[in-house]
Amino acid sequence: MKKSKSNTPKPKMWLYRPVCWFSRVVSKYLFGLTVTGREQLPKDGPLLVLVSHQGMMDVLLVFAALRGRVAQFVATQRQFRHKVLGWFYTRLGAIPKMQFKTDPRCVMSIFRVLKNGGTVVLFPAGQTSMWGIPGNIAPSMAHLVKKAGVPVLTIGLRGGFFTAPRFGGLRFGKTEARMELTFTPQQLQELPETEIYRVLQDKLYYDEYAWQEETGALFRGKNLAEGYDQMLIRCPKCGSTGSWQSGGDTVTCTVCGNGGVLGQDLRMRPLKEGDEVLPTLKAWYAWQEEQVIRQVETPGFSLEEPVTCRAYDEETAAYRDAGTGVLRMDGEAMGYYGTYDGKPVELVVRHAHLPGLSADLGVYVELAFEEYGLLRFMTANKYAVAFMKLGQEYLYRKTLG
User: Fold this and answer.
1) Same domain, residue pair 265 and 176
2) Most buried of the four, 105, 260, 359, 400, by CB within 10 Å?
3) Sheet holding 244-247, edge to edge
4) Can you give 59-105 as a three-state secondary structure string?
């Protein structure tokens, strides 16, 4: 590829090298990382690396797996707003991206780095896993890959979801990175985007619970059930919603006392005789999604949640209250109907343009808009946030046919 000048800062090697060394040590001795397929990693030239996103330590695992390659990661803008993380990401040459929204500036930065012979690391799902299986990958990823026209290496991570899940806790056990040179420039030129998309979905798919059962990997931690109260929407025994609390290795329904305990295999078992629980978060996801789908498929479906709208202030480097209103989800779109800086607004994003819903369960939902940027909609209703995330991502998949 013809080289061009890049506006994307290159990694500061005085920081990059120590971070790589630290990543290799921590990945090996705390997370038991093993890497297969490293012989397929090109030694030089432009390279696009696509990674299955699982947990909060994935960047560290990829640093360790790539070793000799100096790579620039694509990260959500939210990471750059964190005082410490933003400092690190900027000096490591990371490329900011608006999550779950087409970001032309990010795409241009990616192409500039590749044209200069660099390595770019992308997480196509755009979010860590919530249930041990991957989130949606937008078909536009295949278009980006084909247009880039450089070798594509896929890295399938395993164990990342168990060691550092997005909902909290840190566990120590086994992780894997499976590397494969998936496309050459010639293959990308010859293949249609539909086939590229199919291959990417196949290479980046994972099932953490099937992998754990296959390998027998165990995970140690003081609070194995931390954050599970955010993930379990409904009690299978009494039907209550938003009633779970977690502590240590156990979860308990505050309404009926139903409970479960997690083992080091991350399987849940009844806490006492008569309790009713599902064995894995994947099973909970399937059960809860089935109920959500029945509701969103009801004719005239609409769900509204009172929210406070918060906007990021670049001058103060902090979020500020910008208005109040309702966040509404129906069969066609997500929308905010309320005020922004004292003026009435109606801000809508159709499901077809939203591969995933950025959310912190029980705290907020985030949506990006051209004029207002990324807005955060605050609510204390963890059931509503979880319902919207499950429902919206199902409705997006439905638009794909």
Assistant:
1) no
2) 260
3) 244-247, 250-253, 259-262, 268-270
4) HHHHHHHHCCCCEEEEEEHHHHHCHHHHHHHHHCCCEEECCCCCCHH
